[in-house]
Specification:
- Helices cover about 60% and strands about 10% of the residues.
- The protein is of the alpha+beta class and about 450 residues long.
- The chain has a domain of about 300 residues: Outer membrane efflux proteins (OEP).
- It has a four-stranded antiparallel β-sheet, with no helix packed on it. Strands 1-4 form a two-stranded parallel sheet. It has a two-stranded antiparallel sheet with strand order 5-8.
Length: about 450
Amino acid sequence: MRFNSAAISVLIAAGLFVFPQPVETAPVYTIEQAVAVAQAHNPDILIARKRRGSWIEARAGFLPSVSSSGLYDKRQTQSETTLRQEDYNAILKLEQNLYTGGAVRSQVAIGQLNIDKANYELQEIISRVTMEVRIAFNELLLNRAKVRVREDSVHVLEEELNSRQQSFGAGIVGKLNVQRAEVALANERPELFNAQTQLRNSYLRLGDLFGFDARHGEDRPASFGVAGELTYQSNHADLNDCLARADANRAAIKARQKDIEIEDKQYILDRSAMRPQIRAFSGYEIYSERDPAVGQEFNYGGVVGVNATWNIFDGFATKGRMQATRARREAALEALAAARRSVASEVRSAFFDLQQAERVLETETQNVQTADEALEMAKSNFGAGLGTQLDILQAAADVTRTRTTKLSAIYLHNVALARLAHACGTRAEALDFKNVNNEKHSGTQAADIAKPPEKLGQR
């Protein structure tokens, strides 16, 4: 029995190695899913959401207040007196503001305006984070496409080196041709290493925007993956329309407008100190009577009345607060004007970058075709004895460079679209902006355009 138990234990232990535990797969996000993840977990957005809230405190002035107070003392007399030495009272009182000179309404309005301002600031942060996520996502797709281009280029140059080594072994070409192929391959490999490093950094930047912690170890660059390819779609935006949208919709401008409204209400609140304050109260009181001739010592009963105060002169303290509020309002007006100028500058800058990207893409599209034709021509000339291997290698390098440049141009185009959507204070869909997604559309995929030929003679 002991032998059988030991054998069973060995079989169970072996089964743990034969059947490994299921490995948790990393989530894969599209660009819209990436935006949703960032909006749910980004630290800046979470902090901004926690800052909202002053409405409950501000509305307290409209509600009655309940308070209690009490007193007990015992007096020492220097001469004989009929007054009782002990004195005490306790009261439970309900108070309600009747007139505050506009203070309560101003406090409630300021509280609501602060909530509105916090909401606009939250919208601005969400818009900024959304823009940064779209830019980082496009950057990741760009660097991933560059890695593929460089890997394909290295593969092509390795094939060329093997071909030249075989030709050299057969005595067809000289040692110089082999060395040139080796140099071309050696020059291309650092570009591949750099592209791989940039890809890892792109994962880190996107993970920071997600609010994810970096993974330990170097086997995987991140705990998530991305779906989609770097895609270009033409978009013809109108500058005047973008400026109008930004002035009407941008949350940063609306927040500065709320600052002005807050100072207007604060001025009314400061001015209320110069006006009378009237409060009605009612309650129940227990008190002592010190004079025996008046009545018994222990007394109790209800109490009702009106309390009014009016500060006739406070040493110009209220006037000073009102002047400070007016100064803050003037500063808020300047801040609003500065915000409008800054937003308009953002719109124009993004719009001009978009125009530049369109022109670069138009040029690079033709340039890729020219580079392909130049490579084919160099191959033909070499076969006819009119060219050298150096011409072929240079033409192949030009093909890789032009295709990589076009990838970068498409990335800059998508970045300009994301910046313009943020500057206009509106969603990309509202302006018909489509960056990168997995939907099938007529946009051209840059990965297909930028892929180099499998062999140096292939177009």
